Amino acid sequence: MPENLKLPPVSFKNHWPFWLMFFPVVWVFFVFIHYFAHLGQALPMGMEVFDTHRWPSAEFSDRLPIWGQSFQILVSALFLVGLTWGWGRRLTQWIGLELSDSWVRAAWAFGLGLFFLDSFWLGTGLLGLWSKPFTIAALAGLAVLPLWDGISAFRERQPVSFREFYPKDKSVLVLWALGIFYFLLTLGHDLVPETFYDSMVYHLAIPQYWVLHHGIVDCPSNFFSNYPYGAELYFLNGLWIQGTETAKCLHTAAFFFCALLAGGWAREAGGAKAGWMTFGMVLTLPLFALNTSTTQVEGLLALVLLLFLYALEKALRNEGDLRWALAAGLLGGLALSVKYTAALGMASGFLALGRAAWRKRSLKFWGFLVLLPLLSWGPWLLKNMTFTGNPIFPYALRWFGGRQLPDAGYARLLTEQRAYEVTDWLSWLTLPWRLVMSNPDSYNFAGPLALALLPFLFFYCFQTRTSRYWAWTAGLFFVGGLLITHILRFMVPAFVVLYLLMGVVLTDGERPRWAKGFAALAAVSAFLCYFYFAAISSFYYACAGVWSGRENRVDYLSDRGKITPYAGMAEWISQNLPADTKLLIVGDARGLYYDRPFITNSVFDTQTLAGLAQTEKDADGIDQRLKEMGVTHLVINAQEGIRVGADYHHYDLTPEEWSRLDQFFQTKLKVIYDRNFQYVDELNDAVQSASADRPPLPLLFFTQPGTDFIRDTQRQNWAGVESDAGQVLALDPQSSFWWEQEARAQVQLGERPEAEKSFEKAGHLGILEPDSYRLWAQTARSLGLKAKSNAILKKVGELHT
């Protein structure tokens, strides 16, 4: 059948009796009612996103600098998007891609520009050229040609009507408006500093680590550094120009261009209404919007993978077009360098094309399609092979050998990436329902729309090869994805392809009222999902203070909803420690916002101090090893260590190993910062003996009994406190603090003789709190030890003096 032959519109009645539509309609109501059953709890959050009352009022002069920073962020992001688009436009022309749709043309220019910039920074990073003068000169040089092209395009511009920017069909106008609202809301989230945990551990922290070392170097203490960083290299442009906020804006730009590409492809296949429908559905996919509010990578991956699928179909169906094979090869490699899960989408696309994928082609064609991906992906594999002995570290450890993760850490990593345990066929059948219907969060908040509309697709006949291609690609992608992981965030590209299929198929047909109904349903879903989105935003991000100018960005990093914030400590380090300082971060996997070279350990890696306590003979050995690593200071975030240490068993050490650590802390470190259970310790040879008034070893709180002690103390569970303190003392019996805590718990339990002995032991080992001395004196007096009681009170007075 000729490709240009116009097919009759698809319809329900061509295949199924109309009365059967009753069942999918009931299904829609069932899904929506179940999904939004608890919406009432989230409704008040709809306006709280914009509520500024929790921040004190500020003068206009105080707000102006904050608004000025926001303007700078947007201008910086616009500059980088223009830079990306300009180079991509030149590459599009050089390859000779023929793109009739303006939306698709714009997306391809952005995607190829992204490939160009990534390749440039990857090459210069591996060569160790990332000095500050070089990056400034490089960015300035890279801007010349796009700027010239921009000036030329402005001079040759054609009149543009505003009506081209919104749909003429009123049935999709509301969905389009909601899509623009979601986009602007996402962009608003980009105006605040990055606080997403994974970004602070590796998405932005590892690029910052590389910048501090002037290039892409090994980071053996954090296994996340061995993932491919194709998306993060693009975000790095934002870090250089301004900071984390501009980096986030670049991800939102990719979000917009992905929606534009999906809409443009839908317009090519199904007309204007299909294009606007698809554009709105993709922009209102909650999981997509949440993802691109941070510097996670799935939003950018969705764009790159969709570009690859577009090029792949053109290459394999247009008689082996070498231009499209070249484009598919370049974008396929970029997709793999963004995330390994791109291989699922690429394989799904090949399999979906069926026989067209296996026709005889020239050797040059297959060379472009198969070997070109190594241009982007290959350097990451070689880097890993050089640093770890395993090209895909940390996976396939038994196959390749080389660097290893701890067995417990590796097992925990695979468990967390899988998320749900599926044990039988029934749990497999119900898995999609359980994932979609799980509590909305940044992992599975896909909304109900895809699940609700899925049955309607079976009433249509996919009469075009493109629609069948989308259907098979999305289906295979979801099946393959669920076999590997049960986190919907990793399948954002599959949702985009599914929405592309729905946008074209469900707006076509002989029943326009049904098409209007589908558009209305998509709008209703987007509107109701906003309230869940707002609840997540209000709790974790709370941007209104920065938007209104009432809260500056430094204070924002320590605001409520932030996980064990450390911005104050990072700022103190920046202001008080010399530039040649090297930090070992203890208890916390996050390195973002430290502007000194740092060493971090992910929660899955062996913790540096724990490893040294196990391998070195004494405090001198630990001290010497740290100095060989170049470490000058320890940065201890005990708040975070308490949150994760026991759960991941980071410090399951023997009493002998704890003794070495305790001696190291007592004799080799000098505390120079101590606030809110966060410390900066300096490696100091001048410290020769243990200090009686030194704070307790904070790492003991990272153990299970140490964590339980805090919980039981807050609950005033004194029997639990006594037990917890006793278990910690079994690990470190020379700690005066823990003897003191055991004694205080024993007093609360009425165990006075035991308490007096514990106080005696604590007083012999160190200095107690003044209240503890008074409690000790009262305990001694109650036991008839008046002389001892008086002596204790006298000592309190001497210490106070």
What does this structure look like?
The chain is an all-alpha fold and 801 residues long. 63% of the residues lie in helices and 3% in strands. Strands 2-1-3-5-4 form a five-stranded mixed β-sheet. A hairpin with a 2-residue loop joins strand 4 (669-675) and strand 5 (678-683). Helix 15 (298-317) crosses helix 25. The longest helix is centred in the N-terminal third of the chain and has 36 residues, at 60-95. The chain is globular, with a radius of gyration of 30 Å. Residues 1-14 have low confidence and may be disordered.
* Alpha plus pi helix count: 39
Amino-to-carboxy terminus distance: 99 Å
Strand order of the largest sheet: 2-1-3-5-4
Tell me about the largest β-sheet: 5 strands, mixed
- The number of E-state strands comes to 5
Keyword list:
mainly alpha; single chain; five-stranded mixed sheet; disordered N terminus; 5 strands; 39 helices; 801 residues
Short summary:
With 801 residues, this protein is mainly alpha-helical. Helix 36 (736-748) packs antiparallel against helix 37.
List strands and helices in order, with pairings.
Blueprint: H1 22-35, H2 39-42, H3 45-48, H4 60-95, H5 102-126, H6 132-142, H7 144-155, H8 173-189, H9 197-203, H10 205-212, H11 230-241, H12 244-270, H13 272-283, H14 286-292, H15 298-317, H16 322-338, H17 342-352, H18 363-371, H19 373-388, H20 397-400, H21 407-418, H22 425-436, H23 449-457, H24 465-484, H25 492-505, H26 512-540, H27 544-547, H28 553-556, H29 567-576, E1 583-586, E2 598-599, H30 608-615, H31 619-628, E3 633-637, H32 638-644, H33 655-668, E4 669-675, E5 678-683, H34 704-715, H35 718-731, H36 736-748, H37 752-765, H38 770-782, H39 786-800
Parallel strand pairs: 1-2, 1-3
Antiparallel strand pairs: 3-5, 4-5
